[in-house]
Specification:
73% helix; antibiotic resistance
């Protein structure tokens, strides 16, 4: 007796296709969350690494750092570290995507009768959930070292929203690099990209202490715009400035992430669809 397997019919309406994509995407998200639950050591190490940087810069180097307008250096530092944590997420996204692609997991997903967007959607949801957890850990760390927000809960929530928007933009950068560069061993190349971008910003030092050309590069760094905007929203020292980019930090904190999303989201989708070519 022969048995025939019939592939599920692709939904015809836009609403049905959306429900199909969301359901399949959530299944992939649960798969990624299950992997983290089975290897909690990797998650814990990723959460604690930024905390160690805070302790190192806040207590070892903090005494020699200049804060524009005066104020506590750790209050200046923490918004920068929140944004840096969003940047560090590129490495985790890249490693997970590249590992699945190298092991053939991604090809297996592509052969299944699931929504074509489910894999990247599930990856993005899982990483954003991990980002929220990491940001909560960093905020707890900030509170422990003396950082506070001073402008009310609404403005603090807006600052958190800008940070998550930045992470969402970097997420698509990580997905694209993971699909493009090959196996997870290429993470060194990603670190060579990520770390200079992170340190060449206003995260740890005021740009006014830098040479003119270096200060200009640091101020136009997308990270610096989010750092300056969140410092202003939190009421921490270091917000504002005399240059155009410093005066429009809140606008650029929206423009830079949206620009990155507009570039790397379609590139990631296109690359995913062309993996077998």
């Amino acid at each position: 007796m022969s048995m025939t397997v019939t592939a599920p019919e692709i939904p015809r309406t836009a609403a049905a296709r959306l429900r199909w994509a969301l359901a399949d995407g959530w299944t992939v998200t649960l798969r990624d969350l299950t992997h983290w639950a089975r290897k909690p050591g990797q998650v814990v190490a990723g959460l604690l690494f930024p905390v160690m940087i805070v302790l190192m810069f806040g207590y070892v180097f903090g005494g020699g750092m200049a804060v524009p307008g005066g104020g506590d250096y750790r209050e200046y530092l923490m918004p920068g570290m929140y944004a840096m944590t969003m940047l560090f997420g590129i490495e985790a996204t890249f490693t997970a995507v590249a590992r699945d692609a190298a092991k053939g997991v991604t090809d297996r997903f592509r052969s299944l009768p699931i929504a074509s967007s489910a894999v990247v959607l599930g990856r993005s949801v899982a990483d954003m959930l991990n980002t929220v957890l990491g940001l909560l850990v960093m905020i707890a760390c900030g509170l422990a070292v003396g950082w506070r927000w001073h402008e009310g809960a609404v403005r603090a929530a807006l600052a958190v929203g800008l940070l998550l928007l930045l992470r969402f933009a970097f997420l698509w950068v990580g997905i694209y690099l993971g699909l493009t560069l090959g196996g997870p061993e290429a993470v060194m190349a990603v670190q060579i990209l990520v770390w200079p971008i992170g340190f060449l910003s206003s995260a740890f030092a005021w740009t006014g202490t830098m040479p003119g050309w270096l200060a200009a590069v640091a101020e136009w760094n997308p990270l610096s715009a989010t750092m300056a905007a969140t410092r202003d929203l939190f009421g921490n020292p270091g917000a504002g400035g005399t240059t155009w980019i410093a005066e429009h930090a809140a606008v650029m904190a929206l423009v830079w992430p949206l620009l990155l999303i507009a570039v790397f989201l379609p590139l990631s989708v296109r690359r995913y669809r062309r993996l077998d070519r």
